[in-house]
Write a structure and sequence with these properties.
Strand 1 and strand 2 form a beta hairpin. The protein is an alpha+beta fold.
């Protein structure tokens, strides 16, 4: 894995992005249940039962060098409240897309997302 896609932690005032791991599973299941996010028609968000598979999928893509997945933490509680990724990584050209992002309902429309994208 090149240094360009190596896992890292990014900290702001309203959000903390940490390398995604299986340890985030339970918090993410609680997060996805806040608003039944998997029912949104305009995006694909894992179901509570599919969370472990989604974490594994993202970690597999990380091993392949095409994704750098993060758990999105609320610094006030320390809990994971969603996921985001650097995806479609093109290390040779130092290019990434930011996407595959979702947040629990209670943190939507807060400074958390804006700051996460800026980090």
């Amino acid at each position: 894995m090149s240094a360009f896609v190596a896992p890292l932690t990014l900290q702001g005032r309203h959000v903390r992005l940490v390398p995604l791991s299986a340890a985030h599973h339970d918090d993410l299941v609680l997060a996805v249940r806040d608003g039944e996010l998997w029912n949104h028609w305009y995006t694909a968000i894992p179901t509570p039962e599919g969370m472990a598979a989604e974490i594994e999928r993202r970690l597999t893509l990380q091993k392949q060098g095409s994704m750098c997945p993060f758990a999105v933490l609320d610094p006030a509680s320390g809990q994971a409240v969603g996921m985001t990724t650097y995806m479609n990584i093109d290390a040779a050209n130092r290019r990434v897309e930011i996407g595959s992002t979702w947040y629990r309902q209670r943190v939507q429309r807060t400074p958390l997302n804006t700051e996460a994208k800026r980090l």
